[in-house]
Design brief:
The protein is α/β, with parallel strands linked by helices. The protein has ten helices and ten strands. Bound molecules: glutamic acid.
């Protein structure tokens, strides 16, 4: 059997907190248990938020925790052409369309529909599904708008995409989803509507870059927090559409704050750095997680 390959893939837009440490340690534990290797990937596709000082701090904090990585680190910003190629494949297949609506326009469209009594679906992150208006635009109208400099992102035509693959799509889950889903899980990409593939200000969305990276790095086992469980549905669909290999998935428990919310960098929950400067040892930090 091939040696399993795991990865830990933090985004360098803040300091690592206890939730990241849990994820990195879960990857390390499972890699050790299976004599697999563990790779580090820097998920800096969101170029507007990624900062080199956070990337450096992440490496230092992981080393301090005693987590070592095999092989070279992959940094997404070094591989933008890989994502462009994947996007081009989807465009050539007629599965991606330029989406011109701004956030405010989407919000207004959805509020108007809701005011008229329609219910509007939300994706698992709570964002309203993208309205179908731009999907129906004539090609000539798209060309005119783009030539006039209108900003746009790229979206997946979900209905067209689903008609190209044999459904249901599955994945093998050895952790669990929010409702205890485990074993052979049926993907439900429809949850995401016309998912985003590339943003106005970033060359690829998280969903597109993560499936490309996992394939390029030969990842056999994706171990990450349960908050990304539903994202796996859209990742599986993209893998089918792009002909990419399918890793096994393990979604682990999340660490919650006193109010029951997931720890987050944006709310500046206690970072590994702070714990270290407060005098805790790596063993103390690991105890806090367990
Ligand atoms: N970069 C993502 C994050 O920090 C994780 C990506 C993944 O594990 O698929 O939340």
């Amino acid at each position: 059997m091939e040696k399993p390959i795991f990865r830990f893939a933090p985004s360098p837009n803040g300091y690592l907190h206890l939730g990241h440490a849990l994820s990195a340690l879960e990857n390390k534990r499972l890699a050790e248990q299976t004599a697999g290797s563990l790779l580090l990937r820097i998920d800096d596709i969101d170029l507007s938020r990624a900062r080199p000082e956070f990337e450096l701090a992440i490496s230092e904090d992981l080393a301090w925790l005693g987590i070592e990585f095999d092989g070279p680190t992959r940094r997404q910003s070094d591989h933008l052409t890989d994502y462009q190629e994947a996007l081009d494949t989807l465009k050539d297949e007629g599965l991606a369309y330029p989406a011109f609506m701004s956030r405010a326009e989407i919000r207004d469209h959805v509020s108007a529909a809701e005011a008229a009594g329609d219910s509007w679906p939300r994706d698992p992150d709570g964002a309203p599904h993208y309205p179908g208006v731009d999907r129906e635009l004539e090609e000539s109208e798209r060309i005119v708008r783009i030539a006039a400099g209108a900003p746009y992102s790229w979206r997946l035509d979900m209905a067209a995409a689903l008609s190209r693959v044999s459904t249901p799509i599955h994945w093998l889950e050895s952790g669990a989803g929010p409702n205890g889903e485990t074993g052979q899980v049926v993907a439900n990409p429809n949850l995401w509507g016309d998912a985003i593939l590339a943003r106005r200000d970033a060359p690829a969305s998280y969903h597109l870059s993560v499936v490309v990276d996992d394939a390029v790095q030969g990842i056999s086992d994706v171990v990450r927090g349960r908050d990304l469980f539903h994202a796996t549905s859209i990742h599986r669909l993209l893998q089918e559409l792009l002909g990419l290999p399918v890793p096994h998935y393990h979604h682990h428990r999340l660490l919650l704050d006193a109010d029951g919310r997931k720890l987050s960098k944006s709310r500046e929950d206690t970072s590994i750095r702070d714990l270290k400067s407060a005098g805790l040892s790596p063993a103390d930090v690991i105890r806090l997680i367990n």
